[in-house]
Amino acid sequence: MEKFTTYVAEANKAFNTADHLIYVTYPVLRDNKLLAIALEHLHTALLRGMAALLYYDVSYKRISVFPSEFTSQFRLFKESSAKRYGIGEDLCLVISDVAEMVQQRRQSPIEFSRKDTYVIASPTYKLRTLTIEKMKKYLGTTKTFMERVNHVYAAYDGRRH
What we know:
By secondary structure, this protein is mostly helical. The protein has helices spanning about 1-30, 35-60, 70-85, 90-105, 130-160; strands spanning about 110-115, 115-120, 125-130.
């Protein structure tokens, strides 16, 4: 269960970093590159939170295997863990959208900043934009998710002591 606690700690750290970047640093600096950096941290928070819940389920034998790749983890999370922990379809959409955007950014031949927008081009030059409003929406949904993850952790920690 050490992995579970590690995943929870990493998810919380990444979420807090993304939250600080969006609500504290961005308003001061107004640099749109911070949106992309916050997106990366948010992606880490979502992946680690999802992994924590999956690992928790594996350790209690609710699911048989912990998949190593994102697509399998996400599918298993959506089909079993999300329902068990009362996580809605809106969060699954955010996880999928954030993962897609991060993947596109990693493969992007070009990224640039426009007024209040960070633009990411796909290899086929399909453009996706990242705005402060979109990041705040993602953070709000992720905050609810992190509360669920921390609730499971608190219940586990209470049983452990």
